[in-house]
Amino acid sequence: MLDTRQRMDARFEALLVRADIEDFNNAYCAALDAQQLEEWTGFFTEDAFYSVISRENAEAGYPVGLIHCEGRGMIRDRAFALLKTAMFGPRYLRHMVSNLAVDAPDASGAIRARANYIVFEVLTDRPDARILQVGQFRDVFRHVDGALKLAERRCVYDNLLVPTALCIPV
Amino acid sequence: MAFQPAVSRAALAEDQAVGVRLGDKEVALFLLRDEVFATHGVCTHALAFLKDGFVEGGEVECPLHQGRFDIRSGRALCAPLTRDLPTYAVEMRGDMVWVDLDQPGRVSAPAPVASKAEVGTTSVVVLGAGQAAAAAIRAMRGAGFGGTITLVGEEPHLPYERPPLSKEALLDDAAAHADCLTDDEAAALAVTPLLSRRAVGLDAVAKRVTLSDGTVLGYDAVLLATGGRARRLSVPGAHLPGVLHLRTREDAADIAAALRRARRVVVVGGGFIGLELASAARRLDLAVTVLEQAPEIMARLLPAPLGRAFRHLAQRHSVEVRTRIAVSGIERQGAALLVAAGAERFEADAVLVGIGLEPEVDLAQQAGCSLLAGGVRVDVEGRTSVAGIWAAGDCAAHPHAIGGRALRLESWQNAEDTGAAAGRSIAGAAAAPARAPWFWSDQFGVNIQMLGVPHATDRVARSGQVYFTVDAGGSVTAVTAFGNAGAIRAARTAMTLPDDVEWLTDAEEDRMDTHAETRGLSLSRRYVWPAEGLTRIPDWVYTDQWIYEREVERIFKGRTWNYVALESEVAHPGDFIRSHVGPVPVVVSRAEDGSINVFENRCSHRAAEFCRDLRGTVKEFVCPYHQWTYDLKGNLQGVPFRRGVAGKGGMPADFRNEHHGPRRLNVTTHRGAVFASYAQDMESVQDYLGPEILREFEATFDGRKLVVLGHYRHTLPGNWKLYHENLKDPYHATLLHTFLVAFGLLVAGNKSLMLADASGRHGVMCSAKSDPSKIAAEDKKEMRAYHEGMRLHDPRIMDFIDEFDSPWSVTMATIWPNLIVQREMNTLGIRQIVPTGPNEFIMKWTMFGFEGDTPEMTAHRLRQGNLMGPSGFLGLEDNEAMKFVQDGMLRVPEGEHYVGLDPATPTGTSETLISESAIRGMYSHWREVMGI
User: Fold this and answer.
1) Residue A16's domain spans which residues?
2) What confidence score (pLDDT) does residue B518 get?
3) What is the pLDDT of residue B113?
4) Residue B785: predicted pLDDT
């Protein structure tokens, strides 16, 4: 009986974590879709690593990413630069996340997860929403003061060619 | 003198011509009913070999213009021939045919008719010394006229043929001038030539002609063979040197000389002369634009579908043909002529005018002759309405020349036939039967012949390349054959419509080449550089497909070194990467012998782009379609079933692998970078860069071994040159890149240099990082975005670790045509431009560090990498700005850019950031290479 109960608890626990991560990703995407970049920086731990890297580089073992942030300071600088200094044409983005896979927490409580994403971009001069990126989040989550945060998010995109520029993070 | 062996008897056959060369003479041999005849081997009309002719019924027909000669006598039997063919004596010795070039053949042309009965006419004056005049003189003498013949001509020459003037005479000085009447012939025919003077008065009552030099000639009969003058363009500037008309031998010599100096010509008038001039200019590889004011070329003479056939032929040969466009003026701009037409300007080195002929009828009018259709009205014998006056050739019009229509024909045959008819009439001989009008033109390597006279309102039917014009009553008025002399031969017998014709409508058919109008070598039309010079750059430089294609040929595939790889990407034998030279995909591979090879990524069998992986290691390349294999140097190694199976199929016996490999490029390396060139005789990369650019290149590629850290790849919807310009434009750096300024990395007062090489094609934008606290207040004011006290949460991105032997912390080298070397403090990268069209290119970045970098140094380079690339703080702004520029040109087209900063430095190196001199220098080079 007890075994079944424990197994049930573990499954509940996993479902809750998964639900938390889904909620997290939804909120994360909502912040980016709204171009609330300061809010976006709040999804990361202080020592977080964030990068947007091509699948070509990732698979070849090359570290270069379109965006490469070591620590939340760089993430905040990125948000600041995009909001205050960067010049780019007006656009809307829509982030879609699916196929979430969540591993069991490791000994330290860190949770590895993966999810597929698509980012649509709508520019002012075309009727269509083009696919800006399609790829996979390769994540490590940690709880900080009870809240889920990203300790690592590698956005590995499949499309070899970036159309013009990636202005808003993924 | 001497018989010599010519050919074996067995080589001859009935109805076949055989050509041999004896000494310096071409000889044609024929077998006719078992008897051998020899004639000169070249047609007496134009340069064509009779061995290529058509033999039938004892006659040989010249392959070019269908003149026929009698094989036995050499007699010229029809137009366009005027002279007989020399014949040679033949002897059979055993199996060999022997020929004596000094003896005529056994059957010679009959001697001219001896003097016939007196007809009351003893003195004839022929006014005008052209082809009709020569024909008339021959006919008069041929008919036995024994009186005096005086030939008055305005030109200094005896009659000569004009058709070659718009054709071979323009291309080859040495091309023999075709005389209608040589000095010897004139003497033999007892003609008194009075050349270089014109008749100014004709008194039909007193029967007197007055010449421009005061001479007065009495006559019994006068022939007006005055032809006409090339119609002059009557717009401002038509008199300028370089605006050329064609009528005389001297005109042709002027045009030939102008064509040899020209790059671009404008032809005014889309008629036969205009198109023949265009054809000659294209033979010389010039850019040609034909301007025609009618809706279709040749609209005055031909129905639209037939005119269209001529236009398509020209367009297929890269002539830009513009219709419905009237020239309104010509002016000189520098060395060039600007032809104004509508709202457009066409630039040219020579303007060739072919807008028709104005018949010379002043004398006829003086004498009271009736006119018709712009010419002198004549009857079938050439008689005008005034007794004693005949007219022939271009200036004469017969009321019922064709199908009862009054027509003035301007053709070789018309001059010949009407001249001869008038000559016979003057001599009192009976008229010869009239022949169907016939005309030929040579355009773009195609011989076009027309039998009959089409009318502009005829319907047009087509069978292959033969066009039939049909009048309202259903009769065929003319047959026009493009490169099909057989069709004309058949039409001489019966002008009928074949069963399989396709009726053409006036509406445009689908074009073979939808780009023809924009692609044609239309240098002269839209490619006029603004008069202000290099401070203006017209939009077509960035948006035009034809300009782009020319750039691929002249720049990327021209005398340039194109970056293709870093050596470390193909470190070991068998390693390869896909790369590009211009838009052309290439494979870069290292062979077993350590050499680096670059070859086109296109299977020589069926064109498949056979190497599909971005990078890898292989022993050989295999095209997946039919398994053709290539070695690491791009040599074709194996072809499956080359010998076929069981003795059947397979490649031709003479197939050689070495003749079928993909194109291999010239390759060189410098400091770890690999360059390729289509030019096999390129100077070294060091010489190509020049000493100043080389110094900066070597400051970045300082000899340490390169380590690839990864790539960025992006498309950019802008012209590829904008990328060079962006990095030859230091002006933008402090204005667009607010981030740089906000954090004090670059300000207008920084120590900086915009370096350009001597040619203008390469450049390096250099700056030295300064301490933000030392920026002068006035400099700050100019920069809208400078925020004092702005701080980064992680300022390491701005650290500069001085690792280079250079006074500059930032250098951006633009190395023509496809390479940018970025040294933005410690983030290092190669940017390779791959153009895909005028409006877009792909940029491939290869970020690198050096062997021996500490992990912290690599991490620093990666952090600093956030400045650059398609998401870089600076990089994304550059990409966006270039898109905006292209958008602006595409959506508000036909404009020009203004790049006038720093007039004190017209082109080249500038020490201030507020300068566009390097952009101007680049266009100075670009225009030279592009010929624009």
Assistant:
1) 2-157
2) 44
3) 46
4) 43
CATH code: domain of residue A41: 3.10.450.50
Give the count of beta carbons closer than 10 Å to the beta carbon of residue B53: 26
Q: Return mean pLDDT, chain B.
A: 88
Which chain B positions have a beta carbon within 8 Å of A162's beta carbon?
Answer: 712-715, 870-871
| CB proximity A81 to B under 8 Å | yes
Q: Are the C-beta atoms of residues A19 and A27 closer than 8 Å to each other? A: no
Could you tell me which chain B residue has the CA closest to the CA of A57? Answer: B710
**Cα three-residue angle A114-A117-A119, rounded to 5 degrees:** 155
The residues with which B843 forms a beta bridge, in sequence order, are: B714, B833
The CA distance from B923 to the nearest CA of chain A, in Å, is 25
Count Cβ–Cβ pairs < 8 Å, chain A vs chain B. Answer: 123
Domains held by chain A: number: 1
Gap from B839 CA to chain A (nearest CA, Å)? 13
pLDDT tens per residue across span B113-153: 444 434 577 899 999 999 999 999 999 988 889 899 999 99
Between A60, A73, A167, which is nearest B794 by CB?
Answer: A73
Report whether pLDDT(B253) > 60.
yes
Name the residue with tokens 């009048």: B471
- The answer to whether the CB atoms of B883 and A57 lie below 8 A apart is no
Tens-digit pLDDT profile for residues B525-551: 567 788 889 999 999 999 999 899 999
H/E stretch holding B8: strand B3-8
- From the list A81, A85, A161, the residue facing B842 with the nearest CB is A161
Cβ-nearest to A87 among B866, B871, B880:
B880
For testing contact with chain A, the best of B712, B719, B799, B827 (most A CBs within 10 A): B712
Does the predicted interface ipTM exceed a cut of 0.85?
yes
Q: Are A86 and B876 in contact (CB under 8 A)?
A: yes
In a domain, A163, yes or no: no
Extract the tokens encoding B603: 């299977």
Condensed to tens digits (0 to 9), the pLDDT of residues B69-113 reads: 989 888 888 777 778 899 999 988 888 999 998 888 876 444 444
Residue A127 lies in a domain: yes
